[in-house]
Design a protein that fits this description.
By secondary structure, the chain is an alpha+beta fold.
Amino acid sequence: MLMNKKKMIVVTIVITMLLLSLNSIGYASQIKKTVDAWYSNIKVVANGAEVAMDVEPFIVDGRTYVPVRAVADIFNKDVQWDGTNYKVIINNKPDPTVTYLYSRIAEKDTQIAALQKQVADLEVQLSKGNGDIDDLENQLNDDYEEYEDIDFKIYLNGDEDDIEVEIYVDLHDFDDEWDALTSSDIKYYLQDIVDDIVDEFEDADIEGYIEDEDSGDTLVDFSVDSDGDVTLDSLNDDADMGDLEDELDDEYYNYFDNFILSVKLDGDEDEITFYVEIAYDDYSDEWEELSTNQIERLMNYIHNDIEDEFDDADIEGYVYDTDNDEYLGDYTYEDGYDPR
């Protein structure tokens, strides 16, 4: 009855035992034993989950035997059978993540080596050209450190092929003098500096900027074309332009009593674009009720206020819908037009 409950079946099996003792000729002897194996529906559970077995585990002499391959799979091991030497060989399986990481490290090592070579090449180039550039920098400071009663400091960076011109001015001391400069004045000043650089390094690509060393703001960005001519890529008139923008915004934000506007300025003292911004989705009905004359009168008021501050500027204006990122209109002006 007990044997039926445990489902024990006595079987005769032949198992090969590996004897670890070595004889004088260097190979293991083989013997056969008849053993009683007990099968009792033994289950193997790993990390809370039952493991499927292609060969059922059994018990011999109180010891439970489980297929090596099944156990190896649980622990992510690779199993091989050496039939010649009667050996079970167990090794770690290659980890694909580790393999991938090693390959990435190898790629990075290659990239680092390439970058190190580039750095070494650049250092050689710089060592060849820095002496002449330093001499030129000193010359430029001697010749151009003062312009229109403003003190400048000039620095050159790069090599004979690429030169960046860094020019610093302290607006804490020279704010009024800087504001008195026109964009043409600044361009002439930079062109003289660039001409001297081109005389020494005619094939160099040149670009640079003027910076306020007091605030750290970039006042001018410039580039140089293939003919050696300076182009002002950006000119920062933020001081005067920002004050005027604030004044216009305060003056006209409630020009129409039933909705709110804002005024924004862009450009420099030579070319100014102003934008009357409206949140159209909030005020579409109110906006559509306005006549063309009412809108033009507002635009001309703003135009004239800007002209009072920048009388030589070319001025144009737009109405801009900030909700839908689109223009509602643009406006031009006639000399002598009185909006009143």
